[in-house]
Structure formats: structure tokens, C-alpha cells
């Protein structure tokens, strides 16, 4: 049976790449407990970049898991040292305090972390599984017709983008910054690219905040016309952090037609409105199914939900997308429908959504403030 000492000895084998000191000597290992076959500890990171945190977390879990008698390892990320980074990072933006008021307006936002990105679009929904990632990916791909596009997986709990875009390999480094991976002409960043297979990561609010900040600050995006964020479901820390870290040009709300989905979408719209983030419009996904043999159109999840919620908030319905086996397959196989069958009616529908999004971005005149030169 492993003792606390055995666990610490194993963890001494992991070095912080920057300081070249082991993580125990650096005091990163806190709250270590060994109970029966279960080992728990917290990695109290300070200013390490996200890829280092993730690599250390993954190595720590693996090394400890290999010790005799250890059945379960739960390594938390975060700890006391995570927060001060915002105050001592030496970066002008600093980032809002963890308890920043929710109603924080655009004028109070920190200066631009990504001055080379023209438009930032979040794809969100209060509800899970309605097709946010599918819409985010195909919207990003359709936007390529208008300019250079990047996409960030802000879904730290279930990063789906690597699978959906069929990305290969890990992000490289240049000049101490992370290079996004390229897939189908998009620049892509996801926590899933850093951890490889889905290792359970324990995220706390401040960690998400810091992760989102670093995805912007530490990733070399280059000049982009559009940066699309695939958001996790709900109205939690990721949504709040993102809207506080950068001035979002706008949000695309995804819903399915039925009333239960609308309840969550209303909650999400209200939250973004409180944060002064412009609503670009609503996309109704899985709106109808066209039977391939007869061509008959079926409203499987009901009808009119997207229009209803759009009217309610005075925002446009950006499009209605069919429930379609090829769209699902495209996501599962890493070749989204807009790439897989660019001439299909489904891909055309996505391009139409992208066209409206661009129109709406121009119309809402949400030109991001120019970076101030001091
Ligand atoms: N229009 C569609 N037709 C058929 N399948 C779809 C469609 N849109 C999404 N799907 C499928 O539904 C599932 C959920 O979609 P997706 O992952 O895009 O949703 P999500 O809202 O991002 O989910 P989560 O909340 O888990 O992040 C996926 O398997 C996806 O391929
Ligand atoms: Mg998703």
C-alpha cells in the first residue's frame, strides 16, 4: 500500500519546465491525503501556462496511479496560488477580480487581449446537446468564405472540437506562445488538444477564468477576422468569464424547436443581456427532418420555437437547420457537413446562417474598440 511519502516521491519526478524544479519542491502539491486505495491532492499552480498545468496534472495522475495499491487518483487543479496571478501577472489587462459584479459593462472591460482579432462570436445555449458545437464548427467553416477564422473550445468539461474537426497532433510552441492547430483551414484551440484522451479534469470557477484568459493571451492566433467560441452548456463560469475577459462582438443562441429548450435559452439570453453582450440572433437546430425516400418534411421536435424566442427578444432568427444523419456523421468523423458535402442543402443552410451573422455584426456596429497606444 502506498504511503504519503511514496506519493511525494513519485511526484518529485515531475519538473516544472520553466524553473526546472520538481513540483514538490515548488510547493505545488497541497492537501495530500491517502485513504485506502484513494489518493487525493491539489496542484496549486501559480503562473504556469495552461499547457504546463495540463501536462503536470496528467503526469501526476499517471505516476501516482501506477503506485502499488493505488486504485483511484483525484488531482484537483487550482488551489491558493491560482488567483494571485491576476494581480501579479504583470499584464496590463489584469483581468477582473473573481467576484467581479455580473453587470460589468463594456466600458469597464480590460483592454484587448487579442487586438488582431476583429470579431469574437460565442455560440451558446442554456441547454446541453442542442447542437452548439455542430453550429460553432460549421459556422466557423462557413465564415472562411469571408476571412480568416479561428475557433476555441470553451467547453472545458467536454471538449468536442478535436473530434468534430478531426484534428491531429498537439499544438506547437513558438516564442513561448502556443500555436493553434490547423484543421480544414481553421485555427483551432481546445483543452482536448492538450490532454489527449479525456482525462477527468476538475475545474473550479477561477481556473476556468484563468484558462479562458490564457487561451487568448498565450495562444498565437495571428490576424483573424472571426474567432468563434464553442461554449459549454449552461449559464455558468465559462460564460461569465468569457464576457468579462474580452468584449464579445456577439452571441449566437442555439435552440431546438420545443418549449423545454426555450426555457433554458431565455435564461441564457437574459444572462448575456445583463453582461451587455449583443445578441446576434437565434439558430434553430434540428428544426425538421426530410424523409429521404418520400421527401416529406416532419417537425420531429415541434415547430416555431426559434421564431418565438427571436420575436420575444426582438432579435433575428438566423436560420433553421434540418435534423440530418449526415450532419451527425460529419461531426463524429471529423469532417463537418460544410466540408463533407459543401453543395448539400444542409451546408447551404449553414452558409446562410454565416451570411446573416456577418450582416448582423455589421448592423449592430459592434466594432471593437481600437487598442489604446500608451
Ligand atoms: N442538425 C443536426 N442533425 C443531426 N444531428 C445533429 C444535428 N446537430 C447536432 N447533431 C448531433 O447531436 C449531438 C449533439 O450535438 P452537439 O455536440 O453539437 O451539441 P452541443 O449543444 O454542443 O452539446 P454539449 O452541450 O454536450 O456541448 C451530436 O452527436 C451531433 O452530431
Ligand atoms: Mg458542445
Quick structural gist:
With 374 residues, the chain is α/β, with parallel strands linked by helices. It contains 13 helices and 15 strands.
Fold and architecture overview:
The structure is a single chain. With 374 residues, the protein is α/β, with parallel strands linked by helices. The strands form four sheets. An eight-stranded mixed sheet has the order 8-9-5-10-4-11-12-15, with helices on both faces. A three-stranded mixed sheet has the order 1-2-3, covered by helices on one side. Strands 6-7 form a two-stranded antiparallel ribbon. The C terminus is likely disordered. Adenosine-5'-triphosphate (ATP) binds next to helix 4 and helix 11.
Number-wise, the strands total 15
Largest sheet at a glance? 8 strands, mixed
Shape: elongated
- Provide the helix percentage: 25-40%
Model regions low in confidence, pLDDT < 50 over at least 5 residues: 79-109, 366-374
Compile the SSE list and pairings.
Elements: H1 4-11, E1 29-35, E2 38-44, H2 50-65, E3 72-78, H3 85-88, E4 117-124, H4 132-143, E5 149-153, H5 161-165, E6 173-174, E7 177-178, E8 181-183, E9 186-189, H6 191-195, H7 205-217, E10 224-230, H8 237-245, E11 250-255, H9 259-274, E12 279-284, E13 289-290, E14 297-298, H10 305-313, E15 317-320, H11 325-332, H12 337-340, H13 345-363
Parallel strand pairs: 2-3, 4-10, 4-11, 5-9, 5-10, 11-12, 12-15
Antiparallel strand pairs: 1-2, 6-7, 8-9, 13-14
Helix pairs in contact: 4-13, 7-8
Amino acid at each position: 500500500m502506498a504511503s504519503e511519502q511514496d506519493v511525494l516521491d513519485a511526484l518529485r519526478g515531475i519538473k516544472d519546465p520553466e524553473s526546472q524544479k520538481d513540483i514538490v519542491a515548488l510547493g505545488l502539491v497541497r492537501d495530500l491525503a491517502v485513504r485506502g486505495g484513494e489518493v487525493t491532492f491539489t496542484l496549486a499552480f501559480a503562473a504556469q501556462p495552461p499547457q504546463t498545468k495540463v501536462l503536470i496534472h496528467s503526469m501526476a495522475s499517471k505516476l501516482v496511479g501506477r503506485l502499488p495499491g493505488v486504485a483511484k487518483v483525484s488531482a484537483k487543479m487550482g488551489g491558493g496560488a491560482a488567483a494571485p496571478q491576476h494581480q501579479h501577472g504583470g499584464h496590463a489587462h489584469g483581468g477582473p477580480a473573481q467576484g467581479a459584479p455580473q453587470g460589468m459593462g463594456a466600458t469597464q472591460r480590460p483592454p484587448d487581449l487579442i487586438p488582431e482579432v476583429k470579431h469574437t462570436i460565442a455560440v451558446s445555449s442554456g441547454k446541453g446537446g442542442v447542437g452548439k458545437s455542430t453550429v460553432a464548427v460549421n459556422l466557423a467553416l462557413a465564415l472562411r468564405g469571408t476571412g480568416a477564422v479561428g475557433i476555441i473550445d470553451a467547453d472545458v468539461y467536454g471538449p468536442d472540437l478535436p473530434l468534430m474537426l478531426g484534428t491531429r497532433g498537439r499544438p506547437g510552441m513558438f516564442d513561448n506562445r502556443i500555436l493553434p492547430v490547423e484543421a480544414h483551414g481553421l485555427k483551432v484551440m481546445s483543452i482536448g488538444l492538450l490532454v489527449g484522451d479525456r482525462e477527468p479534469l476538475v475545474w473550479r470557477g477561477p481556473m476556468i477564468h484563468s484558462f479562458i484568459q490564457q487561451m487568448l493571451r498565450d495562444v498565437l492566433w495571428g490576424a483573424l477576422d472571426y474567432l468563434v467560441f464553442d461554449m459549454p452548456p449552461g449559464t455558468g463560469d465559462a460564460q461569465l468569464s468569457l464576457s468579462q475577459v474580452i468584449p464579445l462582438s456577439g452571441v449566437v443562441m442555439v435552440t431546438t424547436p420545443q418549449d423545454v429548450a426555450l426555457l433554458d435559452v431565455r435564461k441564457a439570453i437574459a444572462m448575456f443581456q445583463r453582461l451587455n453582450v449583443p445578441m446576434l440572433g437565434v439558430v434553430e437546430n434540428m428544426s425538421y427532418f426530410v424523409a429521404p425516400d418520400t421527401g416529406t418534411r416532419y417537425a420531429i421536435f415541434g415547430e416555431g420555437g426559434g421564431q418565438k424566442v427571436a420575436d420575444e427578444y426582438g432579435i433575428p432568427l438566423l436560420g433553421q437547420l434540418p435534423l440530418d444523419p449526415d450532419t451527425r456523421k460529419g461531426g463524429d468523423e471529423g469532417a463537418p457537413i460544410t466540408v463533407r458535402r459543401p453543395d448539400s442543402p444542409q451546408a447551404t443552410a449553414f452558409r446562410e446562417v454565416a451570411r446573416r451573422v456577418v450582416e448582423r455584426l455589421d448592423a449592430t456596429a459592434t466594432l471593437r474598440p481600437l487598442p489604446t497606444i500608451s
